[in-house]
Amino acid sequence: MSVEYKKTVILPQTDFPMRAGLPKMEPTLLAQWKDEDLYGKIRGISADREMFVLHDGPPYANGHLHIGHALNKILKDVITRSQQMLGKNAVYVPGWDCHGLPIEWKIEEQYRAKGKNKDDVPIAEFRKECREFAQKWLDVQREEFKRLGVMGDWDNPYVTMDYKAEASIARELGKFLMNGSLYMGSKPVMWSVVEKTALAEAEVEYHDHTSKTIYVRFPVTATSIEALKDATIVIWTTTPWTIPGNRAISYGAEIEYAVIEVTETAEEAWATVGEKMAVCTDLLEDLCKNGRITGHKVVATFKGSELEGTLSAHPFRGQGYDFDVPLLAADYVTTDTGTGFVHTAPTHGPDDYQTGLKYGLEIPEMVDGDGAYYPTVPMFAGKRIYDENGKESDANEAVIAKLVEVGALLSRGRLKHSYPCSWRSKAPIIYRTTPQWFISMQDNDLREKALKAIDETRFVPEAGRNRLHSMIANRPDWCVSRQRAWGVPITVFIDKNTRQPLRDQGVLDRVYEAFCAEGADAWFTRDPQEFLGDKYDAANYEQVTDVLDVWFDSGSTHAFVLEERQDLKWPADLYLEGSDQHRGWFHSSLLESCGTRGRAPYEAVLTHGFVLDGEGRKMSKSLGNVIAPNDIINKLGADILRLWVVSSDYHDDLRISHEIIERHSDIYRRLRNTLRFLLGNLDGFDDAERVADNELPELERWVLHRLSHLDDMVRKTTADFDFHTMFIELHNFCALDMSAFYLDIRKDALYCDAPSSLRRRAARTVMDRVFDCLVRWLAPVLCFTADEAWRSRYGAESSVHTETFNTVSDGWKDEALAAKWAKIRKLRRVVTGALELERAEKRIGASLDAAPKVYATAEYVEALDGLNLAEIAITSDIELITGDAPDGAYTLDDVAGVGVVSALAEGEKCERCWQTLPEVGSHAAHKTVCNRCADAVDEMGIAAAE
């Protein structure tokens, strides 16, 4: 009986499957991690190492995760795991934001659906429902985050509604109270009529909105400019409802103005022939067009600075608005739109307010929390700007009608523009002056401390520094109060006589102790006298019922998480969130920490972009382009989603679509196949087979050189948080250096060489090192697949996540060898191209059918001295000739000096290795195989039957 030679080929053996089956495999591995307390085991192993803390920016406990959550948490996990692999103790404690309007709004919606009124429910009961709602979604999100492969202390997260957390937040506010930074003041704040509360910058987004526009005349009553004495000042505004709040007109000192006399008007114009009006000369044409003024003459021109001392009358003078309206210089006046004169209502805008303060103007309270004028507002009491649904109500039209009645309206129109809206209700907001609690940016040098802290912080990318710096440099005082029920209360008592807040550390300490025991509900359920103690009579004090802005909550997390947990440290090494958090969490954390501790709570800040669809559009249910992370995970697995995160340049906006994810599935398969090939060909490998470095063939030493450079790259990109670059390099190593080159060449030796051959043992020695490095490098990204591969080789009780990156020898670096093999690979590319052409023309079936002639310059021939080019090119034979290639030879434009003339190999095809060689048939015992295969078969103890 003859030998069945194909059974003697040493084929790969592994239980690491080709098909990943990630949707089924990953939950199994998650359960195993939990059963073996992998996170706890890692903490024990690394307890004495340098600590690395990425402080988790708390997501909001409200609804299922979206793709932005997945991006954020995966990136955090990749960073934490990679720092752990660098040999640090990378602790990750997840957290949640639980207070605030979105949750309160959901409970109110449930009330409205049942016909209930929130105000009829005891506040403690209402807060209990909010707490239960937040807890429900916290639990849902926790499982969804874990399913992404995010490893952390999920059993002990931080939660802003925990009693101790609420106590700590109140204690942090108390520090501002005690150092004098916290004060109550009336300022214009962004106000949502729908939600009936003040909003922070981070709670506002901009949408297209169509506003009513008006040009209004203000009669001049006193001026040093002769031409103005019988003229009107014309202002333009997109908020007619603010006219009752007007107390001044602002101008630009360097702007040129003109007084014109109307000589001709179109039909239905409100301007009259002979009247005079003042306007910026650059905007005169616009004024005439919009006012239907078809003819005019310029009476005089003057600089804005000449307007000093000029007074005008309110359009509603004689009807409750009997005060002077002064003209005041302001540096924010521009000539882009309008008239060059800015209607100034100090109660309805931040610039207007500052002008009011500067010049001592009246700053009246005009509008209540429902968006209606107070009863004290002449003519317009009770008129509403927006209704409870955020739709325009009757205030605008009432003001416009009255302006027409008194002859003050010159023109009206409409303008579609970007307008601030609440990001929850999407309804337009208003600026409204109302008593609020503020933290001063000036007291205790908070602004200066924050700007200094920014200078001392590392930003990735660096552009984040300037963005945060400009926000802090220009921001007003921090409004920290909200007129809601679900949150940490502003734990302040106000003296009824002095109207000053009570500053007493003993009172604050009693509040802290009560909150630790009962949570912030204690503020609403306990007798205030319990907090005030024996020193003060509760009858003499008002208890504040506003709650804190949730950004103060999250801005305080460093205090009760980083400082108070024994497994963490303060400050954090890194804060990481989307770029919108320059005005959100990065911002509030910086101010809170600088105000109480004098420095930032972080050493570095990293920002990522937003997720867009495949065409670069924002995700929107109405567009039908929303992709939920669970959909991807259930179909393809979390590792595919993790691969998408690191393969994208997350410093910019990222794109995702089903087509993009499918492409990443293909990339994943190439990476997985590389791991599988390594595992299969390392079956049975042990140290007895290992070849010393100095005995390795050149090709293996080139691989070690590549590993050494890759190790440098991995460590640098990990330190730089540049996982996009790391992924590209590792993918190219697997796809180009390994699969398409090294493993392609060594497949023959692995399958067909005798087990004892140096070439085969050297290949397995190097593959062992490649696997050991590669699976560790991939572990922070493909956390499931890397661990599956590791356990497949080293046993189910082991985990790659308890390991660190290998210490790779600098002795492996050999730049001269690398340069030599770069030449060889260029030449090989020409040979491979020629063979592909031969296959396409069906002149050969496989590269082993060929024995081409390769013409090359001396430098290429020198590089190949002592090497087997047929082995490198995967042909049965090859002839290397120094000199120019003949006409018709195959060449590549980018590889000068190399040409290939194809030819068929001579001899018979080896039944075992499939090489075509003249020697096949010459071996007495093995007639159908080559000499190499005959020796291998004999070594393996298999002889031909007689």
Automatic annotation (TrEMBL):
<comment type="similarity">
    <text>Belongs to the class-I aminoacyl-tRNA synthetase family. IleS type 1 subfamily.</text>
</comment>
<feature type="binding site">
    <location>
        <position position="910"/>
    </location>
    <ligand>
        <name>Zn(2+)</name>
    </ligand>
</feature>
<keyword id="KW-0479">Metal-binding</keyword>
<dbReference type="GO" id="GO:0005524">
    <property type="term" value="F:ATP binding"/>
</dbReference>
<dbReference type="GO" id="GO:0008270">
    <property type="term" value="F:zinc ion binding"/>
</dbReference>
<keyword id="KW-0648">Protein biosynthesis</keyword>
<keyword id="KW-0547">Nucleotide-binding</keyword>
<feature type="binding site">
    <location>
        <position position="913"/>
    </location>
    <ligand>
        <name>Zn(2+)</name>
    </ligand>
</feature>
<feature type="binding site">
    <location>
        <position position="577"/>
    </location>
    <ligand>
        <name>L-isoleucyl-5'-AMP</name>
    </ligand>
</feature>
<feature type="short sequence motif" description="'KMSKS' region">
    <location>
        <begin position="618"/>
        <end position="622"/>
    </location>
</feature>
<dbReference type="GO" id="GO:0006428">
    <property type="term" value="P:isoleucyl-tRNA aminoacylation"/>
</dbReference>
<feature type="binding site">
    <location>
        <position position="621"/>
    </location>
    <ligand>
        <name>ATP</name>
    </ligand>
</feature>
<protein>
    <recommendedName>
        <fullName>Isoleucine--tRNA ligase</fullName>
        <ecNumber>6.1.1.5</ecNumber>
    </recommendedName>
</protein>
<dbReference type="InterPro" id="IPR010663">
    <property type="entry name" value="Znf_FPG/IleRS"/>
</dbReference>
<dbReference type="InterPro" id="IPR033708">
    <property type="entry name" value="Anticodon_Ile_BEm"/>
</dbReference>
<keyword id="KW-0067">ATP-binding</keyword>
<comment type="function">
    <text>Catalyzes the attachment of isoleucine to tRNA(Ile). As IleRS can inadvertently accommodate and process structurally similar amino acids such as valine, to avoid such errors it has two additional distinct tRNA(Ile)-dependent editing activities. One activity is designated as 'pretransfer' editing and involves the hydrolysis of activated Val-AMP. The other activity is designated 'posttransfer' editing and involves deacylation of mischarged Val-tRNA(Ile).</text>
</comment>
<keyword id="KW-0963">Cytoplasm</keyword>
<feature type="domain" description="Methionyl/Valyl/Leucyl/Isoleucyl-tRNA synthetase anticodon-binding">
    <location>
        <begin position="700"/>
        <end position="849"/>
    </location>
</feature>
<dbReference type="Pfam" id="PF08264">
    <property type="entry name" value="Anticodon_1"/>
</dbReference>
<dbReference type="InterPro" id="IPR023585">
    <property type="entry name" value="Ile-tRNA-ligase_type1"/>
</dbReference>
<dbReference type="InterPro" id="IPR050081">
    <property type="entry name" value="Ile-tRNA_ligase"/>
</dbReference>
<feature type="binding site">
    <location>
        <position position="930"/>
    </location>
    <ligand>
        <name>Zn(2+)</name>
    </ligand>
</feature>
<feature type="domain" description="Zinc finger FPG/IleRS-type">
    <location>
        <begin position="907"/>
        <end position="935"/>
    </location>
</feature>
<comment type="subunit">
    <text>Monomer.</text>
</comment>
<dbReference type="InterPro" id="IPR009080">
    <property type="entry name" value="tRNAsynth_Ia_anticodon-bd"/>
</dbReference>
<keyword id="KW-0030">Aminoacyl-tRNA synthetase</keyword>
<dbReference type="InterPro" id="IPR014729">
    <property type="entry name" value="Rossmann-like_a/b/a_fold"/>
</dbReference>
<dbReference type="InterPro" id="IPR009008">
    <property type="entry name" value="Val/Leu/Ile-tRNA-synth_edit"/>
</dbReference>
<feature type="short sequence motif" description="'HIGH' region">
    <location>
        <begin position="59"/>
        <end position="69"/>
    </location>
</feature>
<dbReference type="InterPro" id="IPR002300">
    <property type="entry name" value="aa-tRNA-synth_Ia"/>
</dbReference>
<dbReference type="GO" id="GO:0005829">
    <property type="term" value="C:cytosol"/>
</dbReference>
<dbReference type="InterPro" id="IPR002301">
    <property type="entry name" value="Ile-tRNA-ligase"/>
</dbReference>
<keyword id="KW-0862">Zinc</keyword>
<dbReference type="Pfam" id="PF06827">
    <property type="entry name" value="zf-FPG_IleRS"/>
</dbReference>
<feature type="domain" description="Aminoacyl-tRNA synthetase class Ia">
    <location>
        <begin position="29"/>
        <end position="657"/>
    </location>
</feature>
<keyword id="KW-0436">Ligase</keyword>
<dbReference type="GO" id="GO:0000049">
    <property type="term" value="F:tRNA binding"/>
</dbReference>
<dbReference type="GO" id="GO:0002161">
    <property type="term" value="F:aminoacyl-tRNA deacylase activity"/>
</dbReference>
<dbReference type="InterPro" id="IPR001412">
    <property type="entry name" value="aa-tRNA-synth_I_CS"/>
</dbReference>
<feature type="binding site">
    <location>
        <position position="933"/>
    </location>
    <ligand>
        <name>Zn(2+)</name>
    </ligand>
</feature>
<dbReference type="GO" id="GO:0004822">
    <property type="term" value="F:isoleucine-tRNA ligase activity"/>
</dbReference>
